[in-house]
Amino acid sequence: MDGAMEEEGRAISISISIIEGPGTTCWGCGFHILVPSFTTVFKCGWCGAITNQNPRRHGIARPRWKYLRDRCLVAVLLIFMLFIICGGVWAVYHVVFSISLPCGVIHCIITAILSVSTIASFSFAAFRSPGAPPIIPWGSYPLVGKGWLDNYSFCLYCSKPKPPRTHHCRSCGMCVLDMDHHCPFIGNCVGAANHRSFIMFLASAVVSTIYACIMSIYAGYRVWPPLASLSLHHVTRPGADSGLKVVKDVVVAFLNSAVLLSPRDIVLVYLFVASFSVEIGLSVLLWQQLRYIYKGKTYLSHLSSPEDDNIGDGGCQNLFQFFGCPYFASPFRTFFSRKKSHDK
């Protein structure tokens, strides 16, 4: 009796395998799809989900040392910003108020506005969630409609569906919607939920460093010790070494006068050097980010696609939509759509 049941079960399993045939199961809707044996990536015709049959690795917990590294960099950057703000106010206020009281008040108001906007936008970008993908049903045909998971893939780290333009960040240990990059200086990913705050932080920091450079130059001009008299008699003699001698005399005069600087003036010099160097780096990063937004891309999508891809989707309407101004984006969208149809 047992032998007959065993033979019957074996026959059933063989018939099921013959019915199913070669293929695999779609993770999105659960349908069994017949694909060639050499196919590694395929797209389901019912739900649109993309399945990768050769995954690289499975879920890994978020490394704690990366979290501590990011938090330390955030603390260092906050201390640096507070030092620049407090040091700049301490080194410049006596020069500004010596001109007139209204100039000092205006300077304090501008400094307060720039400081609050920079620290607030930095805090929003650093401590706000970068944007987790929405929770959607998957894995069962009755729950998944036709085309509901179009171009979705499956994240082996989170064991969840991953929408298009979503990437898993191993530093944050989560999938991030419209992920641009992971920035260690804010200790967070730049994604759909905090990308605007990150751009506002860059813009506010660039304006703040420009204002700090201007004020430090003006204050340094007012408080710098007088230079020693320069012997420029060799300027009247044309020669190859005349220019080098002038530069040498000026540098020596500045170094001799720098010995007489007070601690307040030394902080003023450091304020200019730090603000100017940070301004250059942040300006390049801000320009790069605005360029990607103009093209309708992120940094990761730029790396994964050629430079000339989706060039027709770029335009000022992407900038207006990104900053929450869809009303101003509609004329640009109409203009570019007409131009595109005219080109065709």
UniProtKB/TrEMBL annotation:
Keywords: Acyltransferase, Membrane, Transferase, Transmembrane, Transmembrane helix. It is a multi-pass membrane protein. One of its GO terms (molecular function) is protein-cysteine S-palmitoyltransferase activity. Belongs to the DHHC palmitoyltransferase family. This is S-acyltransferase. Its main location: membrane. Residues 151-301 form the Palmitoyltransferase DHHC domain. It comes from Stephania japonica. The DHHC domain is required for palmitoyltransferase activity. The chain crosses the membrane at residues 72-93, 99-127, 198-221, 267-287. It holds the Pfam family DHHC. It is found in: Membrane. GO terms for cellular component: membrane. InterPro entries: Palmitoyltrfase_DHHC, PFA4/ZDH16/20/ERF2-like.
